[in-house]
Design a protein that fits this description.
The protein is mainly beta. It is built from 1 helix and 19 strands. The chain is globular.
Length: 366
């Protein structure tokens, strides 16, 4: 069975390549790889190696205005094995693990520099880091700020707490150099309780980003603001009745580059109406980070993050400080990273005790 699947896959891949060649399309590949070792100071936690991600990106130029972009991410070295002889009742064995995600699959028509029209599935163009989620060699940290603004949960509706991590819909983007502006705006199915390609409510998700690309001498200053709004349905469970939620998020930020020094920060504020029996939940988060590259080889870095999951609840904030250094084998293409994350709680309890995570990572681009 596995052999048949592999044969079909390679036949399909060959057909796609031949079709692109026949139409004189220019096909380019690039990608990222990241592998980490992290050790946790909490009791009963063991250090572990993790092949965090292998990302493959294809960029097919069909003509001067039309292109196709695809991106597949293999997280945590996926391994899937099924059991059971009945095709209608087969399940994954316990040792199956990892994730495979088609993160980007969209076509783009470039009408002009100020108007690019994209349709398909894509990382939602929100904030500084969402489009760079797996671009590990392009920043010194082992991961993006996932303890605050880019916090993610375990359900399809909390895959990005403050916005929508992936979107299926239409995305407009462009640059207006005369005004020093760049913009992104999209409309999508929004968050769903079922599948991304379906919509379980009558409202579409909308979002985007507006960025000013200014400079003072050799200092690049890029203030930006992102926005997200959506209505989505939460299905009924044994403890929670079904309800339609409405979420709105505003995310201002800034990105400053002065030679080898980079300073960034973002603040996210969101309210979710009809989130519970008590009504609207208000949550916020922010981070500030800085790094400085020395002799194109060493980049010491630091980041501070704060998350407030419910502004009406006292003493529930979580804080995380990251300090580390990156060694560049090839500047911003291949890095070895070492860091420590200090995670703390506004109020320590039996369940919430401060802990540290020590990590070493390898990041490669190709």
């Amino acid at each position: 069975m596995h052999r048949k699947i592999n044969i079909v896959f390679f036949v399909f891949l060959w057909a796609v390549v031949m079709a692109a060649t026949a139409h004189s399309a220019e096909w380019r590949w690039n990608g990222y790889f990241g592998a980490n070792y992290e050790d946790d100071s909490r009791q009963n936690q063991s250090g572990a190696f993790d092949s965090f991600v292998l990302t493959m990106i294809s960029n097919v130029k069909i003509d001067e205005k039309l292109r196709l972009v695809g991106q597949i991410d293999w997280e945590h070295a996926p391994y899937f094995e099924v059991q059971g002889s009945d095709p209608s009742n087969r399940t994954l064995v316990n040792r199956s693990s990892g994730e495979v995600t088609l993160s980007n699959a969209y076509g783009e028509y470039k009408a002009a520099d100020y108007l690019k029209i994209r349709a398909g599935k894509f990382f939602a163009p929100i904030g500084i880091y969402n489009l760079l989620f797996y671009a590990l060699p392009t920043y010194p940290f082992m991961k993006i700020p996932r303890a605050s603004v880019y916090l993610k949960g375990s359900t399809s509706q909390t895959d990005a707490t403050f916005f929508q991590r992936y979107a299926q819909g239409v995305w407009l983007a462009g640059d207006v150099p005369a005004a020093l502006l760049s913009y992104d705006v999209y409309v999508s199915n929004g968050k769903n309780s079922t599948a991304d390609h379906k919509d379980d409510n009558t409202s579409k998700g909308v979002g985007g980003k507006l960025q000013l690309n200014a400079s003072i001498g050799d200092i690049a200053i890029k203030p930006l603001v992102s926005y997200y709004r959506d209505k989505y349905f939460e299905g009924q469970t044994a403890t929670i009745p079904g309800r339609e939620k409405e979420q709105k998020t505003i995310m201002p930020g800034i990105d400053i580059t002065a030679g080898d020094l980079v300073v960034r920060g973002e603040y996210a504020f969101s309210d979710i109406k009809n989130n519970s029996a008590t009504g609207t939940q208000k949550l916020s988060a922010y981070y500030a980070e800085a790094y400085y590259t020395i002799l194109e080889k060493y980049t010491p870095y630091a980041r501070y993050e704060v998350s407030d999951p419910n502004k009406d609840v006292a003493d529930d904030k979580e804080m995380e400080t990251t300090i580390g250094v990156s060694y560049h084998i090839v500047p911003w293409v291949a890095q070895i990273k070492a860091q420590v994350r200090f995670h703390d709680f506004e109020k320590n309890t039996t369940a919430n005790q401060a802990y540290n995570i020590y990590g070493v990572g390898l990041a490669l681009g190709f």
